[in-house]
Amino acid sequence: MTRRSTARSANRSTAGRPPLVLLLPALTGLAFLVLPLAGLLVRAPWSTLGTRLGEPHVLEALRLSLVTATLATVLCLLLGVPLAWLLARVRFRGVRLVRALVTVPLVLPPVVGGVALLLVLGRRGLVGQWLDAWFGITLPFSTAGVVLAETFVALPFLVISVEGALRAADLRFEEAAATLGAGRWTVFRRVTLPLVAPGIAAGAVLCWARALGEFGATITFAGNFPGHTQTMPLAVYLALETDPQAAIVLSLVLLAVSVVVLAALRDRWVSTS
Amino acid sequence: MSDVVSEKAGGLDAHLVVRRPAFELDLRLAAEPGEVVALLGPNGAGKSTALRALAGLVPTAAGHVRVDGADLGALPPERRGIGMVFQDYLLFPHLSALDNVAFGLRCQGMGKRASRARAAEWLEHVGLADHASAKPRALSGGQAQRVALARALAVRPRLLLLDEPLAALDAHTRLEIRAALRRRLAGFAGAAVLVTHDPLDAMVLADWLVVVEGGRLVQQGPPAEIARRPRTDYVARLVGLNLYRGRASAGAAGSTVVLAGGSGKLDSADSLDGEVFVAFSPASVALYRSRPDGSPRNVWRATVGAVERQGDRVRVRLDGPPFTAAADVTPGAVAELGLSEGSTVWAGVKAAETHVYPA
User: Fold this and answer.
1) Can you list the domains of chain A with their CATH numbers?
2) CA distance A96 to chain B (A)
3) What sign for the dihedral angle of Cα B54, B55, B60, B64?
4) What is the rounded distance in angstroms from the CA atom of residue B8 to the CA atom of residue B70?
5) What is the maximum span of chain B, computed from C-alpha positions, in angstroms?
6) Could you give the CA distance from residue A183 to residue A177 in angstroms, rounded to a whole number?
7) Between chains, do A181 and B93 touch, taking CB under 8 Å as contact?
8) Which of A48, A121, A164, A242 has the fewest C-beta atoms lying within 10 Å of its C-beta?
9) Burial B195-222 (b: 16+ CB within 10 A, else e)
């Protein structure tokens, strides 16, 4: 407690007035980020907001967005944490290549990701044709397809975050657990996971935010069917062509949900790590 | 009957060979049940590596680790049944003191409630019943060490390993915690191996000292023996003795040792022939302004290399020729003799104060 407060006061005394060269672009950058959001608020049709929000297709899109983003996050956790562990802890040939491949979706335009997913998981795709033939499962243009598209673009965020946390974690705790008789799975479950929990939480938040805003891969792979695959970003885009006021309302809702969730999670986990 | 048999085959018998680029550890270790063996050595000597090899945390290139007759060498750490107290204790930060102690019991398959009850007994045993729900960061260094010890002992290990158990403590609390650790180690029925670079910790805690330098055993014995008869410069420095090697020839009243390298000779009251070590305490060196008459048999003229205060004594480094030695004198003597770097003095050691033993 005292250490933190002295550090803060020391910061203040040494930092002094920030130089203009830094202050000017910093404030410009802040304005650039905040002004569009302010524009949304200013132009919002506040008088009809209540009725517009109550419209079934808005609620439907919101529900679908929240459900798919959450499912995608769960899927990312199930696949991404073990993948991050593999990258951080296991030495194997080609680890650098694998790490590069994992980060590809970060730089790949999401539309391209959607096309790639179609080629693999589409009804005539490399894997999709067998899924269809053997199990009767069709992924494209379904809600499951939305989840997969979101998972594809969000997974790298989780892997990178968790891998960083795993690398920073003190391996000697795992050794201590081993001397106490813990097998590798017990060590992972009872020591490694709790130690990197802040990193996992931060990764999951990023992942969820990315999934919530996903557009390109979703519309390419899952299409735009209200109630099934039309998530909030898709609804916003569609409304912009027919009813700009509705687009603003939908955008506001998306903004509000993102801010509330991120602020709540950030205070609880991310900032403490 | 079977107890007697197992006790005979009991304890630790290990030969540890660990190879790394530019370093090789090759060490034989043995400890009876109930015995505490301390590995003492300078930084990088391989003592922590030896401990980690015993625990299975470092792969061995050859050798064996037998505990109570069973060879553990091929087993992973979690199946060795060894308790280890790590240097900064490594209590799991997300678990309470109680759950830290219960961790090993849970791993052995004990239920949650039973393991917690047992862990509570252990915490009480180390005097920390009040701190059961405390997280490790809320514990002091000494308390953390006791939790770590309880955690290691709770799994009823056949061998207990302690890596610098007192290094993380400040000098103020160290004395008391060392005494408490000694009592608890005395109550442990299995063999214990302790790593330290502090000779005092080793002398107080251990029944047997093993001095390791450069990955090899250089000397071993009971603490008193090591303190009296060091065999390397490192050990001599640790126990605070001047140590020389030479060749002794016995005479009428003791022996004369010609020091190796022709750097002089020392007389001793001990009568011995052959290759020997000669040791004497810095406190037995007397300093004079001019050559003393009569009494001491060993007198030489030396240059003062350094003068350094140590507690209520002053350590004076005497440079050769004929040889380098340390002398402990009172601050009064320093003033009286006008000792400072570069000044010359006469030094004397009684033959009865030098100790000669076979090399």
Assistant:
1) 47-272 (1.10.3720.10)
2) 25
3) positive
4) 13
5) 79
6) 8
7) no
8) A242
9) bbbbbebbbbbbbbbbbbbebebbbbee
What pLDDT is attached to residue B101? 94
A113: Cα separation from own chain's centroid: 16
Whether residue B266 contacts residue B258, with contact meaning beta carbons closer than 8 Å, is answered with: no
Going by CATH, does the domain composed of B2-237 fall within 2.120.10.30? no
B312 pLDDT band, cuts 50/70/90, is: confident
Each residue of B288-310: pLDDT tens digit?
887 777 666 788 888 888 888 88
B8 CB within 8 Å of a chain A CB? no
Residue B244: how many other CB atoms lie within 10 Å? 24
Please give the ipTM for the structure prediction: 0.80
Residues A192-205: pLDDT tens digits? 999 999 899 989 98
Integer Cα distance of B112 and B76 in angstroms = 25
Which residues in chain A have their CB less than 8 angstroms from residue B82's CB? 179
Residues B2-14 have pLDDT tens digits of: 333 334 457 899 8
At A220, list the tokens. 């390419």
Q: Is B137 an interface residue toward A (CB < 8 Å)? A: no
Using an 8 Å CB-CB cutoff, list chain A residues near B152: 179-180
For residue A182, give the nearest of B78, B82, B152 by CB distance.
Answer: B78
**Does the beta-carbon distance from B104 to A180 stay under 8 Å?**
yes
- Using DSSP's 3-state secondary structure scheme, residue B222 falls into coil
Alpha carbon A2 to chain centroid distance? 36
State the smallest CA–CA distance between residue A95 and chain B in angstroms: 24
Indicate yes or no: CB of A181 within 8 angstroms of CB of B78: yes
Banded model confidence at residue A10, pLDDT cuts 50, 70, 90: very low
Is A172 in contact with B86 (Cβ distance < 8 A)? yes
Domain boundaries, chain B: 2-237, 240-358
User: Measured between CB atoms, does B101 come within 8 Å of chain A?
Assistant: no
Asked if the model's pLDDT at residue A11 lies above 80, the reply is no
CATH number for B240-358 (one of 3.40.50.980, 3.40.50.720, 2.40.10.10, 2.40.50.100): it is 2.40.50.100
Report the predicted TM-score, pTM, of the whole model to 2 decimal places.
0.79
